[in-house]
Amino acid sequence: APLDEFIAGEMLPIYGDDPLNAGVKKPFSVAPISIMGSKGCYLYVILSGQQFDQAAAMVQNSYILRNTFIGLGLILLVTLILGLIVFRLLTSRLRHVSETVKSFEQGQLERRVKVNSNDEVGLLGASFNQMADTLVSNMDEIKQIDKLRRELVANVSHDLRSPLASIQGYLETIQQKEPSINPEDRSKYYEIVLRNTKKLGTLIEELFELSKFDAQDVQPEMEPVSMAELAQDLVQQFKPLAEQKGITLKAVLSDEHTNLVYADIALMERSISNLIDNALKHTP
What we know:
The protein is of the alpha+beta class. The strands form 2 sheets. Strands 1-2-3 form a 3-stranded antiparallel beta sheet. Strands 4-5 form a two-stranded antiparallel sheet. The chain folds into 4 domains: 2-48, no CATH class; 59-135; 136-216, Helix Hairpins (Orthogonal Bundle); 219-284, no CATH class. It has 6 helices and 5 strands. The relative contact order is 0.05.
């Protein structure tokens, strides 16, 4: 029995029955006592009683609870630190996007967002870069179209002066030589004036077409052109202006003057007219 083992000095701990919990073994201690002079009595003490178990359970629960709170605190702290790191990274990328947009708005058209990921911020940066490339491309195209518009206006303005000068010159010639001019010359002069008037109408129509101007639509209209006829027409057109300055203007044609060239007659006429007009202006 456990009591005999204890009295015999067996190795501790020795477990005995708990009077308060049937079937439960707990460590105990025994001491011999004398009751009213009668020997053979023992004091049986359970070392781990119910109150001790409750106290131990409370201590254990308190330890577990404390460790639980410590663990939760550590988890919360780590989560907070990671959240701050992620927030800083996110805000730094958004700040980079914002600074790039402001720089682009201020005229630094070469600025682009550095895209290093495929998340929402990365997609935002890629969308901005695509938009910026499109805007720059459109601006370059608009500048090119505007440049061509100005060149066309300058060319048409220059072209307007030539037929106007020719019309004015022939009309002045008719007015001055009215008594002595023969019908054949008068008819020729009127024909030249009429042709230059029609040319003025064509140039004015070109000015109206400027609103529809597109650099990609400008294509030469190629056709067979007689350079001999074109040269003779231009000589007749500029002849009054040349005579006013005392300059002899004539077309020297080769024997093969009937040969045709494949070109845009309007552009050819404009080019040769500009050459003749500049030559007359700068000839002393």
